Each structure stands twice: as structure tokens, then as C-alpha cells.
Amino acid sequence: MADEPGRNLRSLSLHVPEPKYRPGDTVSFDDMEFPAAGSVARPDIAADPATLRDYPFTLIRVLDPDGQAVGEWNPRLEPDRIRAILRAMMLTCAFDDRMFRAQRQGKTSFYMKCTGEEAIAVSQAMALDRDDMCFPSYRQQGLLIARDWPLIDMMCQIYSNAGDRLKGRQLPIMYSSKEAGFFSISGNLGTQYPQAVGWAMASAAKGDTRIAASWVGEGTTAEGDFHAACTFASVFRAPVVLNIVNNQWAISSFAGFAGGESTTFAARGLGYGIAALRVDGNDALAVYAATEWAAERARSNHGPTLIEHFTYRVEAHSTSDDPSAYRPADEGLHFPLGDPIERLKQHLIRIGEWDDASHEALQAEVTAQVRDAGKEAEKLGTLSGTAFNHGFETSFEDVFAEMPPHLREQMGQSLEERRVAGV
Amino acid sequence: MNMIQAINSAMDVCMERDDGVTVLGEDVGYFGGVFRATAGLQKKYGKNRVFDAPINECGIIGVSIGMAAYGLRPVPEIQFADYIYPGMDQLISEAARLRYRSAGDFTCPITVRSPFGGGIFGGQTHSQSPEGIFTHVSGLKTVIPSNPYDAKGLLIAAIEDPDPVLFFEPKRIYNGPFDGHYDRPVQPWSKHDSSEVPEGYYNVPLGKAAVVRAGEAVTVLCYGTMVHVALGVAQESGVDAEIIDLRTLVPLDIETIAASVEKTGRCVIVHEATRTSGFGAELSAQVQERCFHHLEAPIERVTGWDTPYPHSLEWAYFPGPVRLGQALKRVMKD
Ligand SMILES: Cc1ncc(C[n+]2csc(CCOP(=O)(O)OP(=O)(O)O)c2C)c(N)n1
């Protein structure tokens, strides 16, 4: 020990990170400085990662405070396309609101919102091709919505009802749709990252043209799978877009617990020689542009790109979480990058392609669409009261392609058990 | 053929027939694997289908799952079964459950090959038998061959199987069978019937055990290297043992096992893995459940000890003919 007689050494001390603010503190993000929209150059998609070393430490932004789209990263989208992005973001938000309420009404056990992060999944889905394969985490419902996947299908999954194609087996929101290019979500954080790289490697090995993309939260970058994925992506120059959604919080642990105090999350790419960008995640056009760049890069055999989306998790982690217990209730209000839907709306108005009346009408439309889908989905049952929407024996199916004898025997036992009990 | 050549031939046959079969793992490409099981495959099928992987088991299994989701049939090699643990989560939570959690939307036809078991002075990190851990996981099949003919046929069946399969290769008998006596070398496979391995395609179906020696006095359940120990002991001890090579632990051929125990009335289970919660416990439970009224003596388990594998004392760990011989004597006493 340091205080043993005869030793004159300084005691070590352990650094345990603390977020800047706890409940009750006054919040200010004034110390955060972001480069102005349009100030970051857009490199060639073939650029050697060695020439991109500054990118993980800046922030790609397209929308300026007046709602103008400026600079080289402006993706110059047609107004119709921008309206489509806005619509999918608003639909995602309306979907979240309704499903959150459904959980509070006891119709399902669990839900997770992506409030404040809508630009990420939605814009990225729009920037990728429809047949590119997505390996999402649990806050990318916007991918399915932007790909026009039926809301009712998503809701049936959330309700584990008779219409749930996953037969009531998965936690609500853990969708799977091969058809929509949406890989089955795992509850184990980060596992999808190396899987996406493997999919991309297979596509490359087969001379296909499709690429893969995957998403993790900043908290999840601490998992080994993240590093496994980066190693394989770098070594095999996999055509993959690896996204980190830095929404500042991993349940109650702030980004500092994943290494965010020491460097940016995009900078993780540097050590792997992977091109890495850091993007204003609340700026739908910047997210679109960065994704388009990364996708083109992957498609041209220039390898993977890591994108950190800098954003803020406005709502609770999930319906099981109470964020006021660990962060100031108004922290999100002070977050300086604003609301992504509001910012895109302002942009459309600014360029003369939108107005408040159209916006209200669209809001009413998406709300009605979600409500109608909700009513239809509920006709097929909800989790409450009708938990066994699927035949009891279905829980023995799909363990293997063909049911082996021991499972057949156990299925028989379970049916017999229910018969004897009269249920 | 020896077992390594048979395994190599199985991959060759599968790669020839299906261009989705892809081999990856540490050192498997240019070099052909530290045990040479993949020798020549890269040369024949190219680097897109046979390639070295970073030393990252989580990555090897994780990318294999992604490749399978794409539509390939990856055959990843884990260099030693002792190194499968960094890839455990990908195997257990992901590969094993992908079909179930997506209700068949995505499937995972991967075959994870890995040499396992001791008796080669590999110390505690090159000798383990982790099969029991995986048989506890729903959605994984576990296959263990004991001879070249089965190794090729079972591996082909595993690669063709629509679900994830763990294929554990008993490295002690890669080059030949042995009788369990540490002071005698392995016999070349050429002196063994099952070394007759056809060049082309055939398979040995998963889920079917083999009665490798018929007998009336006691049923010995074993797999992998232990099949040879059991055969040797049956001969030396003069006990009329019926020896069943399980070949597949999941799915288990309980019918063949039960029929034998009902006939002999006695059962000895032998495996190299540690005893507590080992696969022998499962076998013992199932035999007891099905054959209780036929049993004339308590079921015996002959296993490795509940210690790590000791390097210089590995023969004190290894369940060889002495340990098995004594167990046979005990069950025959009653
Ligand atoms: C392997 C694993 N460990 C822990 C958890 C429990 N868990 C679920 S979400 C979460 C926080 C994740 O934070 P982050 O990656 O930042 O994503 P966010 O929720 O902020 O979108 C934790 C710890 C888990 N699901 N899987």
C-alpha cells in the first residue's frame, strides 16, 4: 500500500466518469461548439481513409439556422423527395406516440421510441437502395416505415397477436422482415454488427451489387462485437455502412461510459483505417448526404464507412425507464441541434415548397393513418388477455427446420399437460 | 484416408456441389489450417470461398451468420474448441435462435468445425471438450465423429443441414484410432475398416447412433475418441459390452440407446469432458427415465475430472482403459 512505512509513492486514483448534469442541475450546452453548416468539404468517394483523418472530429451539417441547405454536402434533393422524408419522419413519430400509449394502456408489454432520432433511420433508408440489407438495432423503426412496410405488420408484432408473423415469440419492436431488407433484431446488443459485415462480405464475394448497413448506439460501441465488426470490415474492405447513433445516453449511462470523454465515436474508425464521418444526426439532409457518400463508396469497392450520428435521446430509453431519475428533465430541450422534423419543415418552407397549412394537413394524415392501422391491428388481438394468440404448439416450431424427436415428444407432453388441466 | 483427409474431402465434395459453401477461419486459407483440414481448398476454389480470418472468434461466427443470412453456407473453423468461448454469444444467442426468433424469415445453415479433446499434451487451453455446454442450447445440433468414414459422411450431412451445426473433431484420433493406453501410439487408420472412405459424395445422417460392437452384458455409451477406448477395453476386459457410438449428441438417438440398455440391463457412459453437468448427466437421466425397470445396476459415468486439463498429468485426467475397466467391473458385480 502507498502508506506503508518506507514508501513514498503517490496514490493512484480511479476516474469514474460523471455526466455534466444530474437531476436538479441547470443545463447548458453552451460549451459545445459545432462547425457551421456547409463548412465541411465533401471528399471524393474514392478518398483514401488516411486523407480523411479530420472528419471524425468535425460535424457534417447541411441545414443552417435559417433552414437553408448549404455547402458541398447538400444532397440537392427534389422537393418531392424531401417531402417524402418529412412524411416518413412524421409517420415514425406518430407511430411511436400511438404505440407508447398502447403500452400504457396495457395492450403490449414494452415499447421504445426514437423521438429526436427520426432523421437517422428515415433519411438513411431513403439514401440506401431498397434491396440493400439493413441490420438494425432497436431504434430504427424508421427504416421499415421509410421502406413503406405496412404499419399494421409492425403493430401485430408489437401486440404478439394473430397477425404477428413472428408467432408472438419476440419482444415487441424486435421486427424481422427479409422482404423489407430488415434483419431480425436481437436483444443482445451489437451482435448485428459483425453479421452485417458478413452479409456484405458475402455480397462482395458473389460479385453482387447490394451493400449492407448496420446500426448501434454509442453505448454499444463498448461491446466486443463492435470491434470484431470493424476489424473484419477493414480487413476485407466490406461494402458496409456502419452507423453509430450517439444519442448521448445508454439507459442511465452517459456517453462517457463508452469512451466518449476521450474521443469521438467516429474516431474509432481511425485505428481500423476505416473512413469515418461525424454527422449532425438531427439534420435529415446531412444524414442523407453522408449515407449516400458511404453507400456510393461501398458500391464502388472502396470499402466500409463508419458514421457517427450526433443526436439526443429525447424520450425515455424504453417504456420501462424513467429518465428523470438520472438526468435533468429539461436536458433534451437545451440540446442545441434542435428537432429534426422541425428543421426539415423549416427548410421546405424556406425554399417555398411547404407551409404551415400543408404541414398540419400532413400531420392529420399520418395520425389518421396510424390510428386506422392501429384499429385494424387490434382486431387481430393485443397482448393483454389474449396472450396465446398463436397455437400453443407453435412454440415448438422453427427451433430446427425439421422437428427432431425430442422436441416432438416435449410438444406432445405440453399439449397433454394442457389437456389434463382443461385449458 | 485418415480423419483429417476425410474431413478435407467432405468440404471438397460440398464445395464442388454447392458454390455457396464457404470456408473461413484462422489460417485455413493459404496454409490449409493448423491441422491441415482445409489444405488445398483455397487453391481449388479461390480466395472468395476459402479465406483466412482475423483472430476473432466473435467475428468469425458473427460474419458467418451474416453470410448465411445472405444465402451462403459458411463452414467456419475455430482453431481449437477451447477458443470457441469468445464466439459463444454469436453461437448461442444468434446462430441458434435466428430461425426461431424470425419464424423462419432468416435461417442459419452454418457448420462450425472445431478440433476438441485431449491426449495430445495440449495443456488446459488445447484439450477441452465443451460439447455439453452447447447441447444445453436449443437450436444447435452437435455432431462428433469417431472415424474417417463417419467424419466425412457426417460433415457432409452437417454442411447440408438447414440449421447451425457444431462439428467437434476428436483431434487425438485425427491420424488413427487408439486404445487409450498413453504409452502406445495411435494405430494408422489404414488398418481400420472405417478408413475405407469413398472419394465422392455420401452422407451419414445426423441423429443416428451406431452400434459399433454388439454385446449382451452392458451398454457403453460413448463418442469420439472414447469409442476407441471402449473398444479396447471391451477386448481386454473380456466383458461382453455393447458399444454405442452416439455420433450426434443433438438430436440424440435415444431409441437405439434404450433398446440396447433394455437388452443388457446395464449402462456405462464414458466421455472426456468434466463430469459435473457434462453430457453424461443428460444421458444418465434419459436412460433412467426410459429404462429404469430394466436396470440391474446403477448407471456409471466415466469422465474427465472436474478440474482443468493438467498438461503433464493429462493421462491422469483422461478417462482411459483403467477407469473404464473398473467401472465395467463395478456394474457387472450386481
Ligand atoms: C449484451 C447486452 N448487454 C446489455 C443489454 C441491456 N441494454 C439494453 S439497451 C442498453 C443501452 C444501450 O445504449 P446505446 O447502445 O447507447 O443505445 P440507445 O439505447 O441509446 O439507443 C442496455 C445496456 C443488452 N440488451 N444486451
TrEMBL record, chain A:
<comment type="similarity">
    <text>Belongs to the BCKDHA family.</text>
</comment>
<feature type="domain" description="2-oxoisovalerate dehydrogenase E1 alpha subunit N-terminal">
    <location>
        <begin position="11"/>
        <end position="50"/>
    </location>
</feature>
<dbReference type="InterPro" id="IPR022593">
    <property type="entry name" value="Oxoisoval_DH_suAlpha_N_dom"/>
</dbReference>
<dbReference type="InterPro" id="IPR029061">
    <property type="entry name" value="THDP-binding"/>
</dbReference>
<keyword id="KW-0560">Oxidoreductase</keyword>
<dbReference type="Pfam" id="PF00676">
    <property type="entry name" value="E1_dh"/>
</dbReference>
<protein>
    <recommendedName>
        <fullName>2-oxoisovalerate dehydrogenase subunit alpha</fullName>
        <ecNumber>1.2.4.4</ecNumber>
    </recommendedName>
</protein>
<feature type="domain" description="Dehydrogenase E1 component">
    <location>
        <begin position="87"/>
        <end position="380"/>
    </location>
</feature>
<keyword id="KW-0786">Thiamine pyrophosphate</keyword>
<dbReference type="InterPro" id="IPR050771">
    <property type="entry name" value="Alpha-ketoacid_DH_E1_comp"/>
</dbReference>
<dbReference type="Pfam" id="PF12573">
    <property type="entry name" value="OxoDH_E1alpha_N"/>
</dbReference>
<comment type="function">
    <text>The branched-chain alpha-keto dehydrogenase complex catalyzes the overall conversion of alpha-keto acids to acyl-CoA and CO(2). It contains multiple copies of three enzymatic components: branched-chain alpha-keto acid decarboxylase (E1), lipoamide acyltransferase (E2) and lipoamide dehydrogenase (E3).</text>
</comment>
<dbReference type="InterPro" id="IPR001017">
    <property type="entry name" value="DH_E1"/>
</dbReference>
TrEMBL record, chain B:
<dbReference type="GO" id="GO:0016491">
    <property type="term" value="F:oxidoreductase activity"/>
</dbReference>
<dbReference type="Pfam" id="PF02779">
    <property type="entry name" value="Transket_pyr"/>
</dbReference>
<dbReference type="InterPro" id="IPR029061">
    <property type="entry name" value="THDP-binding"/>
</dbReference>
<dbReference type="InterPro" id="IPR033248">
    <property type="entry name" value="Transketolase_C"/>
</dbReference>
<keyword id="KW-0560">Oxidoreductase</keyword>
<feature type="domain" description="Transketolase-like pyrimidine-binding">
    <location>
        <begin position="1"/>
        <end position="176"/>
    </location>
</feature>
<dbReference type="InterPro" id="IPR009014">
    <property type="entry name" value="Transketo_C/PFOR_II"/>
</dbReference>
<protein>
    <recommendedName>
        <fullName>3-methyl-2-oxobutanoate dehydrogenase (2-methylpropanoyl-transferring)</fullName>
        <ecNumber>1.2.4.4</ecNumber>
    </recommendedName>
</protein>
<dbReference type="Pfam" id="PF02780">
    <property type="entry name" value="Transketolase_C"/>
</dbReference>
<dbReference type="InterPro" id="IPR005475">
    <property type="entry name" value="Transketolase-like_Pyr-bd"/>
</dbReference>
